[in-house]
Each structure stands twice: as C-alpha cells, then as structure tokens.
Write a structure and sequence with these properties.
heterodimer; A: mainly beta; 34% strand; B: 290 residues; alpha/beta; eight-stranded parallel β-sheet; 14 strands; 22% strand; globular
C-alpha cells in the first residue's frame, strides 16, 4: 500500500464510459482485479477506482485504465494532470488455478471492475452475462476479447434476452466452475439463492461478489464501510470488496 | 522542539516530542495505515475506541457524504479491549511514538473494566476516555433536571476510569457540554482534556430512505471546537488537546494559540494520511518558538 502521485496519460470516451489511463509505477504491480485505489478527486471523501485494464504497454510504466461514468469526477480529468492515489487496497477476485469455466456477471454500470478478468488465459473458457437497461447504453462488445462468450440481457428487450440477469444465471451457473459478480447489491440475495439451488455441494467460494459502499479511509481504520455477512459485519475496504456471495447478508 | 508534558501531575507522566497526534476513531488500532504514516514523526498515536466486550457496531449504512465533510456512525465497532491487547500489544510495544488507547466510557463499569485491562501495560502510555454525548437520551438532558444527572453520570465514568487506570488519564469532552464538564473532569482526576469529541448530526440517507445520526467530520467543525476550547482554557489549568476540523498546520496553530498544548487530527487523515506528518513538520518551528 502506497500513497502516490499518478499521471493521467489519456482520457477518452469508451462506449457509455470514460476511459482514464493512469501511470503509477509504485502502485501497479500489486493491483489486481477487484482491488482498488482511493483517488483524491477534489471532494472530502476519496473515490474508489477499480482497474479496468491492467495491461502494461511498456514494462515499468505502471499504466492501468479505469472506466467511469461521465458523471464521475474522474471523467473530468485531463491528460497531464496528477492524481493522488492510495492503494492498492482490499481483497480482489481469487480465481482458483483449477478453474476451466469462468462466469462473469455484471450490470452495465459495474462492468469495469470485471474487465481485467475478460482477458483469456490458456485453458480457460470465459462467459460474460451482462445486463443493460437498453441497447444504447451497452459497452461496445467489439472491444471485448473475441473469444469471450457474451450473453446480454436488456430490461426493455432492445438487445439480447429481454429480462434480467436472473433469467440466464441458473444455466450459466451450472456450466461454470467459478463465478465473479459485479452488480447492484440488491440482486445478490437472488443470485445467492440460485447458487444454492444449482450448485449443491460445491457452493463455497464458487461465486464471488464485489460490493463497494462508500469508503472513508480505505484501510480499515474508520469502520465506515460495513458489510453485513453471516455471523456479523465485515469491512468492505479490507475484508472485501470481493466477498463470497453466499456470505453476504 | 520542546517536549510536551500532558500529565505533569502524574507519577509516570506522558511526554510527547511533538504536539501532533491522530484523533481517536480515525487511526484504527494503530496498524492500519502501515507504512503510509511514519509514526516516529508524530507526538503520539491514539488507537481505538475500545470497549470491554467486542462490538459489531452499527448496521449499515454508516457513512454519508455531506457538504464539506462526512457523517459517520460506527456504533463503536471494535474487537474488545482483550482482543486489542492480545492481537496488537506486541506491535504497539514496538511503536516509536507513545500509544494512547481511547476507551469508550459508556458506563462506569465499562470504563473501569477497560482501564483495568490496560493498567500496567508498558506499551500503553496513556488512556483517553470518551464520554457519552447524552446519557439517557437528549430528552432527559433537555428537561433541565436531566442535565445534572448527565453531568453526574459523566463524572462517575471519569472517576471509575481514574481509579482503574494506572496510566495518565486524558478525558475527551463531548463538544456540546465541554465547558460544563471540564472542571468536574479535572476534579475527578483527569490529567489532561481533549477538546472536543466530534459533534453529532443527522442527515437523510436517500438510498435507504432513513435519517442517519452520527459524528461529523470536516473543516466546518473547526470553529465550533475552537470556540469551546477558548472557553475551557479559561476554566481549567490542565493541559488541553485541541481537536476538531484540523486539516493543516495553520488550523493547528489556531488551537495552540487558543490554549492547547497539542492537537489531534481527525478526518483529514482519511483524505490525506500524509497530512499528519506534514502538519507535524510544518508546526515544528511554531511550537518551538512559542
């Protein structure tokens, strides 16, 4: 964990998001999918940023991308600006080495945190179940790796399957041997119910879900980012933000 | 820089090499900030709050962003004093700055129990005792007769802590009643006073459609705390620690000029952990020249 000054190297539109490229050599090596940094973007509270891409064009540059909605304060950054970051923080997604079929589940606004997991590893088949309100807000699927199997659900039926994540999740949960989820927490209990139903006997750590309430300190000092779990309360910033889906309450 | 003695009347004393320390509730249990803050550069660390038994704390949501700051309601979440000593005692013993443990004095029994557990531990240089803002609820205080009961309750908590604690005792006064309590706190054995605890406020949390009441952090707290420090400084002769809305060396200087001998930095640490060091370094010439 370091506090470091990152350089904004590029800012561009990327579908419904704004892609902000940051160079932070001190930080990059320990960043991982689901882990985050806290960025000083001008408000009293720092904002969590999740890496959406961890590719390093030139070794040593320490460059990574974040994707934010246009209303996010990071979207107003300009190339050449400096941003104070604290990180990397938290516990990210943990994909067991034995995984052969990886399922990613996201709603559109929460997709960026899963994007680093879309990179294809040898011997790993990856499917993405993505929900959008309507076709016009869809992240450009051509920007995703070609081998990624993409299942789109739209609430209005304008693209893909009309309905919700819950409609397609059961079959994909049967197919997968690991699931990583980043969506509105309100849907997590229903997803957990499906996992319990279709993954009898192999549910522990099968599904990992990202949950990110407002984080004040990011290091576990303030106890402000409480997440109710089985048997008590955990801190999103240090115990999470990625939790066993079945642990969440 | 001249050393600062927070407990001149205590047999052990509590000497700081620097007037800057973190505020309770903002620095965790001392280990969380790791290498982000070099504690040898600051006067002391204040860890906790701790209670006698473990506390899960308040149900979420606990955090609400408000204009210029944050409202936080943790419900005294902590692993309990015994677990703190067991898990962190060894690490705290190696801390290069004096360690002050903030005990949440929710009752005389709780205060005594925590202080007894911490008594005699060499790694713990001092106890900071937090008091309830309004024991028995606000209605009781506003009824008039309830105010004296509230003050009596607070005094009983301080006295219980004083009897049980072997280390110097700092009492952190509630902001609203700091001037009413300060003299009784000193008479009850406080070696020093922290002025003051973060004030409480209430805000609407739209996602869950409920009001959240918690402590307020932000620069806007500074004038409130400074006003009450001015008043307390005229009433008691013990060392005072200024606390509330401090975000810079200039803010700290205001408290020192108002009568404090040391300061606690609270929510500013969350935004910029390095500020603790920056304030300590920037303050050094001022502190040594005064």
């Amino acid at each position: 964990m370091v506090q470091t000054d990152a350089l904004v190297t590029d800012v561009e539109e990327s579908g419904p998001f704004v892609r902000v490229s940051l160079a932070a050599p001190d930080l990059h090596p320990a960043l991982a999918p689901g882990r985050f940094v806290l960025a000083d973007l001008g408000g009293y509270l720092r904002k969590p940023l999740f890496p959406a891409s961890l590719e390093t064009p030139s070794p040593g540059d320490g460059e990574f991308d974040v994707l934010v909605l246009p209303s996010h304060p990071a979207a107003a950054l300009q190339p050449g600006a400096r941003v104070d970051l604290i990180g990397p923080l938290g516990q990210g997604f943990r994909i067991p080495e034995t995984t052969r079929r990886l399922l990613l589940v996201a709603s559109m606004a929460h997709l960026p945190a899963l994007l680093p997991l879309t990179n294809q590893e040898p011997g790993l088949s990856t499917a993405l179940l993505l929900s959008v309100a309507t076709a016009t807000e869809l992240y450009p699927v051509q920007m995703l790796p070609p081998a990624l199997e993409v299942h789109i659900v739209a609430a209005d039926g304008s693209i893909g399957h009309r309905g919700s994540i819950l409609d397609l999740f059961p079959d994909l949960a049967r197919w997968a041997d690991c699931a990583c989820i980043s969506a509105e927490p309100a849907i997590y209990p229903a997803l957990a119910g499906i996992v319990r139903e279709v993954r009898i006997g192999s549910t522990h750590h099968f599904a990992q879900a990202l949950i990110a309430p407002p984080m004040v300190c990011g290091v576990g000092a303030c106890y402000g980012c409480a997440v109710p779990v089985t048997g008590g309360i955990k801190r999103a910033c240090t115990d999470g933000p990625v939790f066993d889906l079945l642990e969440l309450r | 820089m001249t050393a600062i003695e927070l407990a001149p009347e205590h047999k052990i004393g509590l000497t700081l090499s620097n007037p800057v320390m973190p505020a309770a509730g903002c620095f965790g249990l001392g280990m969380e900030y790791g290498r982000l803050i070099e504690v040898e550069a600051i006067g002391a660390i204040v860890v906790g709050p701790v209670t006698a038994a473990p506390r899960q704390g308040a149900a979420p949501p606990r955090t609400l962003s408000i204009p210029g700051g944050v409202l936080l309601h943790t419900g005294l979440a902590n692993p309990g004093v015994t677990a703190v000593v067991r898990r962190y005692g060894r690490a705290l013993a190696h801390c290069t700055a004096p360690v002050i443990v903030h005990v949440a004095g929710t009752s005389p029994d709780e205060a005594a129990s925590c202080c007894q557990r911490l008594a005699g531990i060499e790694a713990i240089a001092g106890i900071e005792l937090g008091l309830p803002d309004t024991p028995g609820g606000l209605d009781r205080v506003e009824s008039g007769s309830g105010l004296s009961d509230f003050l009596n309750d607070a005094v009983a908590i301080i006295q219980a802590a004083r009897v049980a604690a072997s280390q110097p005792l700092i009492v952190r006064l509630p902001m609203v009643y700091a001037d009413l309590l300060c003299e009784a706190a000193v008479e009850s054995g406080a070696d020093a006073l922290t002025v003051a605890a973060p004030p409480r406020g209430t805000a609407w949390h739209e996602p869950t459609r409920q009001f959240i009441t918690g402590r307020l952090y932000g620069p806007f707290v500074l004038p409130l705390a400074l006003r009450i420090l001015h008043r307390v400084a005229k009433l008691v002769p013990v060392p005072l620690i200024g606390c509330g809305g401090i975000h810079s060396a200039e803010d700290s200087q205001a408290f020192l000029r108002a009568g404090a001998v040391a300061v606690q930095v609270g929510g500013a640490i969350w935004h910029d952990p390095a500020c603790l060091i920056h304030i300590a370094c920037d303050l050094a010439p001022e502190a040594s020249s005064d």
